[in-house]
Amino acid sequence: MDKLIITSADPMGAAIYDYYKSGKADRLIVRSSMFEDDEIPVKDLFRTFDQMPQLERLALMQAKGRILDVGAGSGCHSLALMGMGKETVAIDISPLSVKVMQERGIDAHLVDFYDESFDARFDTVLMLMNGTGIIGTLDNMGPFFDRIKRLLNEGGSLIIDSSDLSYLYEEEDGSIMIDLADDYYGQIDYQMLYKDIAGEPFDWLYVDYETLAFHAEENGMKCELLSEGEHYDYLARITVRQ
Are 119 and 150 in contact (CB under 8 A)? Predict the structure, then answer.
């Protein structure tokens, strides 16, 4: 079992840990310089397969072989996969989230996705709940896809979801007004807060499907649109181009 280093800057983990232990949690706030404060309902992080959106259920059904659940949080996706009899390893950078997952019987590890010392290989890498967020910015697409290639077995695939935020810039006539001189509109800065715990600010990327597919092709990979959701969201499968 990994050594867990608990720090005060783990707001997501603290919220998950509280809910796991007591069935309730305070408000988990997501702050951005670009939008008003939002809140993540902590109980939703413990949803079952039947409670998941259609795109998430499809992603879990598409996952095969040895599966890596990246940014696994409370482990709801890993538990659902285990319930299907699938082999799953979960990683997260939140020590308390990893502790909760381990107590729930998940093979969970305190690992940064970009840490090259984690050199296991998988048939499916699963990245859900806006999985493209971990890319951070468009400039990081190259290192991201390089990392995916090193994690996948031959014939393996990345299953990932995201949303196109262009709808936030839609005018009354249906046109989209985006300043092309600015950074890509899906690059967001976030900070999480829980009780008196303030996490470090971080970059988070929402990316439209066409942009994701373009960068996948640029990095020697093939992108396939699996399904679209009801609110500008989508699920994609990415494989190494043969």
Answer: yes
